[in-house]
Amino acid sequence: MNPANVPPWGCPWHGQVKSGRVYLPNGTNRVYRQPEATSYIGPGGVTVRPQDTYGITHRHAAGLPAIVRDAEEQAADDAAGRQWRNEATLSGGRLQVHAKLLSGWIYIDPAGARWLVRCTQLQNEPAVSFTTPLAVTVELIRFGVLGGAPESYSYNVSLPFGDTGGISSGSLLVDAISPTGNAAVVMAFRRFSAGRAPRLPVNFTELTITGLGAEALIAASVVRDITQISQVTPVLPSQMWWLGGDLQWYDAEPESWFIRARECVQSGNRTFSRIIALWYRADGLLQDVVFRTSATYSVNAARPEAPSGPGMSGWPVYSAAASMTGEVQIVLGATVISSAPLLAAIDLGWDGSTATYTHSVTVDGVVLSGDSTVTRTSWTQVPFPDIAYLTGLSATFGTEAGASLSIRPEDTPDLNPSSALGSATLYRGTLGNYWYSRQVVGFEISTELGAGTNPGSRAWRNLPPASPSGLAPGTTQLHTIATPSTYYGSHDPYTGAVAWYEPSPVCYV
Amino acid sequence: MATLEQQRRANGERIQNERRANGERIEAERRAIGNRMVEERTGKSVADDLNRLTTPQQQRRSLPSVPTVGAQPASVGRGSYVPKAATTAGIASPISEPDFTVREFWANGLASSDGLFFLPAVKKIVAQDANAAEVIFEYAEPVPV
Which of A23, A149, A171, A338 could be A330's S-S partner, Cβ–Cβ 3.0 to 4.6 Å? Predict the structure, then answer.
């Protein structure tokens, strides 16, 4: 961009920052400001710094040509650990560049002027209502001209929310920024204080900026609502009975019984997907980051006979079974980045006096749950391990019902690793997505150890995560501990490098 | 009317003065000759000095010379001197800029490698020298490649 006789200038120090030092390609390190997490005021007035925001990185690219160095210059740069990049990286939840906090991102207008974009209502994950559009003020501040005159403009924008599935409030986070800064995705989500998945998206809205900074047009539109975020295919047939749906004694005149068809499943394939993030590609287009369960069902269940009366004593002898085999996947666009095999099965039996109920789920070759023989006296719904909030995989068993194995969207996660069923306690494992940073997400599986204790020790498995550059290098990490540790990670948008399973905050600059 | 005696006395005084003057002149001439001879012996030109002491003689005119047919002998070229239009004689150090606000910059600056920052490129500086004479610096535009 500059005349050929002008040497490159700026900040040539790039690499991974840990404990306040940047580690350079030549093997040396130097003092560098550690990128900061976002923060918000949580319960009790405590400042919370979400673990998955320490390693945030966004790519800033103005389409400049690569810096060309001759052999001698490159050798000198390599020896000194310098990298002259034609792109910048915004690092940490508060978005710093060259060790300076911006708390915003950089927009390049059609005249080539750089503007710092700030919106305080979208920083620090505010709690907002999703029932009405949110009025925000977006400020454009002239940026980057050394010694230049200050200049700024404010724009009022209405941020809409689409169908959130009845979730009326939650939090906001700017979760993706386009390379030229002309667009950003705001994620509306439910936050959970417990469990290993702190956010459940219910809506994605995109802010777009066009025109010169002094007369910009800033718009906002919903790009994904809950109907697009959470999807089940194929759509169920309108009428189906199976595996005991709801078999209820209707205690009224005339006495009768009926089958109320629940969401039933036939043999065949079923896919459940949930969008867990939106990321910008290098060309500035958005792509979905999806958690998906894809399985083939096999069902062996006859239509139950009519009971002779209310209660378990009126039930006929009955047995049924269903299973599914498939995969859980993390998908980026149309590409499966990470996957693990999934097997699930239930068996139900009633011999006239005793009910037996068994269920099992195996993920990545690890059994998450086990059998239990119980005498049922009341209705119980048992969500299948802790993947219910992601896959909606659930099993039901009770006196008025047989058992059902189904996939349906569940918007309320069941974060408890165990639940009571009669006199026994079923220990269920967990299957979740662990966010090492907002650009690094992978499967995390746990199984209970030590039957008879709750919660007891657990065995944890962290599979190599997905990132905008694909699957991170490394192998499945195994760990045994009652309360899991906190891990950090980051993605380098310039080199594609990924750090994950780090015990302390890490971020690329 | 002056008597004869007075006339004779006046004439005598005149003649006496003339003789005294001539004597002083001759003495001076002789002294000069002596000095010249000294100068001559010490290496100074004789011909011009003698010419100054003597009554210039009538110059003999010589016939104009006729140029030799053929190549001209080497000679020193002469040109006409045209004085410069400048009104100052030169720039006196130090040069200082009295007012930064009149400095001009090119629209395109020098960009950092990642395009985030721009160093303004100077277009024109209005300065003055030690004699308060205006000195203008004009810089080339950094044309992007």
Answer: A338
